[in-house]
Amino acid sequence: MSARTTQYLIGAVFAVLGGWALIFPQSVIDLGVTPEYHSNDLLPRLLMGCFGAQACLFALVAFTAKFTRRTFAAYGLALLPFFIFNYWFYFVEPVLNEVMFIDFVGNLIMLALCWHGYRRAPE
């Protein structure tokens, strides 16, 4: 698999999960947040939609830019704090439930893709 295909796959993860949060923010909250933290207020839906919009924006970057080894390495390093986020809000402060394990899996897939892209991209 080429580096270009790898970056498209990274973009696809962002487009799918970000699109879900952008278009159906209440669905993400209902399915992925523990009942103690559920809210039907406007602000959580707005914030979830903003989160999705940012993910979709990065998907556009991944679909249109040309990633280098440095891009893959920087993005892989930038993903690491998200694993801390996933751990904290699932185990320490259980805001997220098992459905939001999809976020952890998405991050893991993107990290693996960054490693692959780094190895395949030209210097």
List keywords for this structure.
about 120 residues; mainly alpha; about 0% strand; elongated
What's the helix and strand layout?
Layout: H1 3-23, H2 25-32, H3 42-64, H4 69-92, H5 101-120
User: What is the strand content?
Assistant: under 5%
Distance between the termini: 17 Å
The domain count comes to 1
Proportion of helical residues: over 70%
Mean pLDDT across all residues, rounded?
Answer: 94
Number of helical segments with 4 or more residues = 5
Number of extended strands: 0
* Overall morphology: elongated
- List low-pLDDT spans: none
Radius of gyration: 15 Å
Briefly note the structural class of the backbone.
mainly alpha
What string gives the helices and strands in order? HHHHH
Sheet with the most strands, sense and barrel status: none
Characterization of the model:
- Helix content is 78%, strand content 0%.
- The radius of gyration is 15 Å and the shape is elongated.
- The mean pLDDT is 94.
- The protein has one domain.
- By secondary structure, the protein is mainly α.
- It has 5 helices and no strands.
What's this entry about, in short?
This protein is mainly α and 123 residues long. 78% of the residues lie in helices and 0% in strands.
